[in-house]
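I would like you to help me understand the sequence and structure tokens below and explain how sequence relates to structure.
___
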Amino acid sequence: METCDLFFMREAISLALKGGAKVAPNPMVGCVIVYANKVVARGYHHVYGSAHAEVNAVNELDKTYPPKDCTVYVTLEPCSHFGKTPPCANLLVERGFAKVVIGCLDPNPLVAGKGMALLKTAGIAVKHGVLESECRQLNKRFFTYHEKKRPYIFLKWAQTADGFISRWPLPNSKSENWISSQMAQQHVHAMRAMEAAILVGKNTVLADNPQLNVRLVEGKNPVRLVIDARLEIPETLAIYNSTAPTVIYNALKEEERGAITFKKLDFNKMLLPQLVNDLWQRQLNSVIIEGGTHVLNQFIEQNLWDEAIVFVNSDLNFGSGIKAPRFLPLSNKFTNGQEKQHFFNTY
């Protein structure tokens, strides 16, 4: 593989990252146009529903650089269908570009090789698979959503050095139950701002009355998801406020009420496959599982997860309480003072 291809694709990847969560459920895509071994135009997908990366790069290209002498580098196969915007593959054909270098093919059945075929049929030289693994990792949520027909699943919890996630009985003051540092909490809120949804069980809501929104950083609130089979959570708790769309998975009713959706599932059957399929149907391409232990253990036992992020306070011991999820032996990944963040990835 030519060194210049790697160099220009890395620049396209760095551009794609600027889109962040704003482009979801679409993928992050970056594009550079090269003339005489020099980048002469750049573009990336800014926000869902807006112009794609290729369009933004083409619009930036100065007329002094003829497309027939230019190479387009794009992290994901150009689309070939009409969606919220016209097909990018058609645009590249119409402008008469000489060559297109693609990071990875698009798993979306509406594209899935059709964009590349359209370019080749028009006589454009096409190369694909340049930094393919990096380009797939860039859009791990998008690929999981299309290839596995479910969202990308993060497990997240904090635990003490002796393996507890909470004191029990619960102390009168929430501060007595805090495990994570302020820095770790900011990291969690940054995660929430990046992901489509966040899930907890009934017991976590009853014990903590969490808001499950983004407060410590700037960003959008994820869709809140709660498992409450018998609808035992009082509607006075924060999960029922209107700060974010909320889905209550239950066994009793289907109902839409403002920001709240009651979704009925069959609790006599395997619950998680029903739940993740519903998330797929809602086009939620990622979800953070925040607790409690029972819910997290279900995902672990059914091997239904992609990443796990565990915060361990090595200076804090509860002695007794609610045990942390059953998981692999923890090995240090990141260290910040007394707090260690452990990271596992199956993608």
Q: What stands out?
A: The mean pLDDT is 92.
